[in-house]
Design brief:
It contains 14 helices and 17 strands. With about 400 residues, it is of the alpha/beta class. The chain has two domains: about 150 residues, Alpha-Beta Complex (Aspartate Aminotransferase, domain 1), CATH 3.90.1150.10; about 230 residues, 3-Layer(aba) Sandwich (Aspartate Aminotransferase, domain 2), CATH 3.40.640.10.
Length: about 400
């Protein structure tokens, strides 16, 4: 029995089976590559689902975590630390947030969404607008804003008064927002729906309607933020300023962290002392990691790299590929007559990790350090991968 098979058997015997059977048992990683316990090496084009922004084992992140672990890891929120303050300041600066804006640190994107839901309740209203195809998390609050019925229905009743509207349908959005609306939640690019961008015009309309009706515009940048699309935050390409923004995933390069960012004095003041909290959120270790990630993205020119390398995926043309979507290094490859799951399996057997995010779509969210040469290895192998998937038994 291989080491992988033995560990997978032990996994089945010891873990709650919410994730099914893992595809691999990974042992180590370096740069954009990971190695499993049997010694097989893979180009990681998933990056922990857009989390490992600097890849694996980046010296700047390793040093930041090691150094912080020698001083303070956790202190509780009765206190603060320099890394926490510096990371909050840096995020507000990158977001061009106005004076009086603020940051609440969490442990995950789901928790950041929960904070945003509580923020919306402070308007005195209850109705929330979310998008069809949305994914905002799996806790009961975030789940109410997540569109997929298979995720929501086993756990109802959830938060009432959530209305889903078709993305990029201006008329539907206009007819849904009124004086009872507490908040509009949008993802600039819907990752779990198959990497489907909202148009700039639609995001601007959401901003206009939220302002007109006194609602909050909450932009979920959990997957799209921190340089993933070639800018710090994807909504900045649309020229809008949200009332709140949620972050997580790539923010600390793999160390668990999330953030709720509020824009302006009025919104920031909606949550006061004792009205929200977290035990581990904003701990010095995670914040030191976040600072290292942001500094490295800037120092190594990774926003430009995401734009340049991502454009190669966007221009991909070959038999079996009907379209590509996305921006930066958040990309979808839409397949023509080939099941995405079979293509992902064939890719893994060829040494590449990709994500079959829908039955017809492969999602690529690689580390922001991915080079053109590394991507070239994948694109060169892709025709054979797709042909093998086409012939796979169904």
């Amino acid at each position: 029995m291989s080491e992988s098979r033995g560990l997978l058997r032990r996994y089945t015997d010891s873990m709650i089976q919410v994730f099914g059977t893992p595809q691999l048992v990974l042992a180590s990683g370096q740069g954009c590559w990971v190695t499993d316990v049997d010694g097989n090496r893979y180009l990681d084009l998933l990056a922990g689902i857009a989390v490992n922004a600097l890849g694996h084992g980046h010296p700047a992140l390793v040093q930041a975590v090691a150094s912080q672990a020698e001083t303070l890891i956790h202190i509780s929120n009765f206190f603060t630390s320099e890394p926490q303050v510096r990371l909050a300041e840096r995020l507000l600066d990158l977001a061009a947030a106005p004076h009086g804006s603020g940051v609440f640190f969490t442990n995950s994107g789901t928790e950041a969404i929960e904070g945003a839901i509580k923020l919306s309740r402070r308007t005195g209203r209850r109705a929330i607008i979310a998008m069809e195809g949305s994914f905002h998390g799996r806790s009961t609050g975030a789940l109410a804003l997540t569109h997929k019925a298979a995720y929501r229905e086993p756990f109802g009743p959830l938060i009432p008064e959530v209305r889903f509207v078709p993305p990029n349908d201006a008329a539907a959005l206009r007819s849904s927002v009124d004086s009872s609306t507490a908040a509009i939640f949008v993802e600039p690019i819907q990752g779990e729906a198959g990497v489907r961008p909202l148009t700039d015009e639609y995001l601007r309309l959401a901003r206009e309607l939220a302002t007109r009706h006194g609602a909050l515009l909450v932009v979920d940048e959990i997957q799209t933020g921190v340089g993933r699309t070639g800018v710090w935050f994807a909504h900045q390409d649309s020229g809008i300023v949200p009332d709140a923004m949620t972050l997580a995933k790539g923010l600390a390069g793999g160390v668990p962290i999330g953030a709720l960012v509020t824009f302006g004095v009025e919104v920031t003041g909606m949550l006061g002392a004792g009205q929200h909290g977290t035990t581990f959120g904003g701990n010095p270790l995670a914040c030191a990691a976040g600072l290292a990630v942001l500094h490295t993205i800037e120092r190594e020119g990774l926003l430009d790299n995401a734009t340049r390398v991502g454009a190669i995926i966007g221009a991909l043309e070959m038999d079996g590929v009907s379209a590509t979507r996305g921006r930066g290094l958040l990309r979808a490859i839409e397949l023509d007559g080939i099941p995405a799951a079979a293509a992902a399996t064939a890719a893994r057997e060829a040494g590449f990790i990709v994500n079959p995010v829908t039955p017809t779509t492969l999602r690529l969210v690689p580390p922001l350090i991915l080079s053109e040469a590394e991507l070239g290895q994948f694109t060169a192998a892709l025709p054979a991968v797709l042909e093998r998937a086409r012939r796979a038994p169904r």
